[in-house]
Amino acid sequence: MALTGIQIFKLLPKTNCGECGVPTCLAFAMNLAAGKAELAACPHVSDETKAQLQEASAPPIRPVTIATADKALKIGGETVMFRHEKRFENPPGFAVLVSDTMAEAEVSGRLDRFNQLQYERVGLTLRPELVAVKSESGDAGKFQALVDKVKLSAKCGIILMSTNPDILSAGLKACGERKPLLYAATKDNVDAVGSLAKGNACPVAVKGANLDEVVALTTKLTGAGVNDIVIDSGARTLRRAYEDHVWIRSAALNKKFRPLGFPTIVFPCEMTKDPMKEGVIASIFVAKYGGIIVLSDLRGESLFPLLVERLNIYTDPQRPLATTQGIYDIGGPDENSPVLITTNFSLTYFLVSGYIETSKVPARLLVMNTDGLSVMTAWAAGKFVADAIAPFVKKSGIADKVKHHKLIIPGHAAAESGGLEEELSGWEILVGPREGAHIPAYLKAWKP
Ligand code: SF4
Hints:
Layout: H1 5-11, H2 25-33, H3 47-57, E1 64-66, E2 73-75, E3 93-99, H4 104-116, E4 119-121, E5 124-126, E6 130-134, H5 140-153, E7 157-161, H6 165-175, E8 181-185, H7 190-200, E9 204-207, H8 211-223, E10 229-232, H9 238-254, E11 265-266, H10 275-287, E12 292-295, H11 300-313, E13 326-330, E14 339-343, H12 346-359, E15 363-368, H13 375-380, H14 386-396, E16 406-409, H15 417-423, E17 428-431, H16 439-444
Parallel strand pairs: 3-6, 3-12, 6-7, 7-8, 8-9, 9-10, 11-12, 14-15, 16-17
Antiparallel strand pairs: 1-2, 4-5, 13-15
The structure holds iron/sulfur cluster (SF4).
């Protein structure tokens, strides 16, 4: 049973030192009880108290890791109902489905698309993470062979799908070292699948006909020492699945109801046969609490928007996405190429660098750390002004890379040109376009 804020408060040092980021121990205790703070933020709690507070400080939705070939996918660990309250922690994983009754060419096609459909955006690689391998034939050998093929074809996390423990065991023989998610423990096989999960240290999904059945299954598994659990509420209509997801999140966060305090798996692929509708359904569960989202196939036109949606929703609203400060070479510049400067708000960087690429004029782009603020905001905040830009330009080493000493500043920072010429002696400051779209035409007219 989770502790209340007052119960937690009684165990804290009560010095109100504020080192945890809030002014009093009471405020910290209340945040801890609400899942909005982590115990590690208080450096003064004793080990004994830590043990006592373990349950209270654990996230109300348990983080579960599904290991992949090169990195682990972590889902769950959420602490808020709405992103603006704090942030969403761990983005849902996207999985593509293959089954052992599919034609080989179809399986290969889906795995190829899994490997190929990845996108570089704002310095991150956006891609699906998991392959769900389903036994439909009931033949353990066929299933194992398919899991083998998946393992060899894709660096991915794997979901083994069968309600037959023998078939799941066959799949584990092929990919046990990847710590796949075992799907699914049901009321008929929970003991056997639970001991498979425990024996192989793998996470396990429970599938119930409804939430009551899910609660009975998770209670049984945790009682047997299996804690890394993923929930399938069994719903296969959008309305019920959506309601279940809201119930699960709300029960875990608002009622501290541990039997539902686990991430979920949801199957848009089983809710419609229309690929576009499937994409729309998947997008709803990106926004509303899906942990793993299983798709029938991957198509760029629906996968890309889903990946971008996921990126946006799981970006910390209090911290703008930022690009690393430095000099970025675009298109193989030489000592006569133009030099532009901008801020490190990721969107600004990617727009400006994109327009430079479009111009086909090789150039160097100086990206200055403005705490992730855009040009206009950083300028208004005093972070992208002559006094700040000049020391950065001097330290950047750009002067050694070019013969000319001409620096193109964004049109929105034109007011800084005079100050910069004073601060950067020997440099000529050129005012570039106010709109990024005008950069290509501006650069085509560039003369060193
Ligand atoms: Fe209290 Fe610990 Fe926070 Fe200090 S850091 S105010 S002792 S909870």
